[in-house]
Specification:
Largest sheet: 8 strands, mixed
Shape: globular
Number of strands: 8
Helix content: 25-40%
Mean pLDDT: 91
Number of helices: 8
Length: 301
C-alpha cells in the first residue's frame, strides 16, 4: 500500500516523504516548491480522478481540499469545476500563504480560499461542501474513523467524499540495476512499512483499524458509491523535472531509513545519488515513474 498522502496531492509518490508534515521542524521554504513540483508531475492522474468524480458531482458549488498543502489540487479542482468555490484546508499556515499568493497571481481570490485547520478538530469550521477531496490526509489522524465521520458531517446533502488512500508504491528503476543486490525498491517498501507503523502508533489518540476504506466510509454513514485506481505512467526517458523529483525523493528516503537499510543497500543508494556516477539517477536512461492511486467515493444520502 502506498501511504504518502500527497502523491495525488502534492507530497510525493510513495510513502514517508512528508509524513508528519504538521511538525514544526519542517523547512517550509524548501517544502512548498517541492510539493508543487510533485503535484505537477501527478497532474494528469489527478485530472483523470476529478473527471471521474463528475458522475457524482457534475457542478459542485463548494469544494474542500482537505490536507491541501499549498493548494495544487485546489487549483486543479477550480479549473475542472468552473462554477465551484474551493477551500484549501491545511494546518500549515506557510503553505496556505503560498496558496493565497497563487490565487492572487492568477486572479482567483474570489474562488480559491483557505482554512487553517487540523483534521478532525478544526473541520467543524468548514461550511457544508458538495465535494470533499481527502488526499492521503486521513492516515495522519489517530482515530481515522472518527475523522471520517467528522468529514461526512461537513457534506451537504448529496455531497461526495473522494478519499484517496491505498494504491501501489511507485517504481522507478528495474529490479536489477546492474550493481548492488536486486530488489532495492522492495526493501525500501519494507522500511516504509516499518516507519509508517511507528508513525501511526505515535499519533495522538491512535486507534488501530482495518484499512477497509469502503467499510469505513459506510460506517461513517455514507453510501460507498465506487472505488477505482488511477495510473501515473511516466516512461523513460524522463523529463528533467521528473528526474529531479526522483533524486530528491531518494535522498529524503535515504535519510529516513539510514538506520533500517543495511550497509550494502546504503552504498547502492549513495551511488544512485552521486551526480558524478553515470549509473546514478542523474544520468541513467532507464529511469521511469510508475504508480497507482486508489480513490474511494462516499455519498451522503
Amino acid at each position: 500500500m502506498a501511504h504518502d498522502h500527497e502523491q495525488g496531492q502534492e507530497r510525493g509518490h510513495g510513502h514517508g516523504h512528508t509524513h508528519g508534515h504538521h511538525h514544526e521542524d519542517i523547512d517550509w521554504a524548501t517544502m512548498g516548491p517541492m510539493l508543487e513540483r510533485n503535484a505537477e508531475l501527478a497532474a494528469p492522474q489527478n485530472r483523470e480522478i476529478a473527471a471521474w468524480l463528475h458522475q457524482w458531482q457534475p457542478e459542485p458549488t463548494l469544494i474542500a481540499d482537505v490536507g491541501s498543502g499549498s493548494g495544487s489540487i485546489s487549483f486543479l479542482l477550480a479549473g475542472i469545476f468552473p462554477k465551484a468555490e474551493v477551500i484549501a484546508v491545511d494546518p500549515a499556515q506557510p503553505l496556505l500563504e503560498r496558496a493565497r499568493a497563487r490565487a492572487a497571481r492568477e486572479g482567483l481570490t474570489s474562488r480559491v480560499g483557505t482554512l487553517q485547520a487540523e483534521l478532525p478538530e478544526g473541520i467543524s469550521e468548514l461550511p457544508p461542501a458538495d465535494l470533499l477531496w481527502i488526499g492521503r490526509a486521513l492516515h495522519h489522524v489517530g482515530d481515522q474513523q472518527a475523522a471520517l465521520a467528522a468529514l461526512a458531517d461537513r457534506l451537504a446533502p448529496g455531497g461526495a467524499i473522494a478519499l484517496l488512500e491505498g494504491g501501489l508504491n511507485p517504481r522507478s528503476l528495474p529490479r536489477d540495476i546492474g550493481f548492488g543486490r536486486p530488489g532495492l525498491q522492495t526493501r525500501f517498501d519494507l522500511a516504509d512499512e516499518k516507519w509508517f507503523t511507528r508513525m501511526r502508533a505515535e499519533l495522538p489518540g491512535a486507534k488501530a483499524v482495518t484499512e477497509d476504506w469502503p467499510g469505513l466510509i459506510t460506517e461513517a454513514g455514507l453510501r460507498h458509491a465506487g472505488t477505482r485506481s488511477f495510473l501515473l505512467d511516466l516512461p523513460a526517458p524522463l523529463s528533467d523535472s521528473a528526474r529531479a523529483h526522483l533524486v530528491t525523493e531518494l535522498s529524503r528516503r535515504r535519510e529516513m531509513h539510514a538506520d533500517t537499510l543495511d550497509a550494502d543497500d546504503l552504498t547502492t543508494v549513495d551511488r544512485l545519488l552521486d551526480a558524478n556516477d553515470e549509473q546514478s539517477l542523474h544520468h541513467r536512461p532507464d529511469v521511469f515513474l510508475l504508480s497507482a492511486q486508489t480513490v474511494h467515493v462516499g455519498v451522503k444520502g
